[in-house]
């Protein structure tokens, strides 16, 4: 998968690809997701340093940009960190504002389900293999996703199946889920954030339930809590 890199011949187009993916991802969701992604895009387009992977902006400045109060900024930034999109590089202290980076790879992986809505040309371009050695390359390979630990439990077996089907989707969405238990034929899972739970429940529930029922037909439903 082609990912954004701040330098190189196609850097500008890759930045637009990221913003296109974020816009499509927002439009496919509810008003809460749309507002959250719009706020992040405002930070990216106004203050993000692509070359250094740095976003340095005080809460009061962000509040003015977003037209909200500082408490909303604190809450929204925490959500973005929980999603893995925003990474703290230096915690603010003694008058210094926090310094953040963006996990561009995670953002592209999380938006993958909406790529077809942008168009076949977009999918083909993003999925293009890296250029051969010796040529100018501006791609970053995907991180290897470790398979789940096999402990014999139902969820571990389901995770192994999901990892085998699509390691990238597993790493982005299914891997972080933890089993809570089974309640009245419903497998209950815990997600690292409310957004994560909502996304899985909205977009991946059918796929998740199918994987569970292939291994344990007695399970009739799956619930993801955040």
UniProtKB/TrEMBL annotation:
UniProt cross-references to InterPro entries, sorted A to Z: DnaA_N_dom, DnaA_N_sf, WH-like_DNA-bd_sf, WH_DNA-bd_sf
Domain DnaA N-terminal: 153-212
Top-rank taxon: Bacteria
Protein name, as recorded: DnaA N-terminal domain-containing protein
Species the sequence originates in: Allgaiera indica
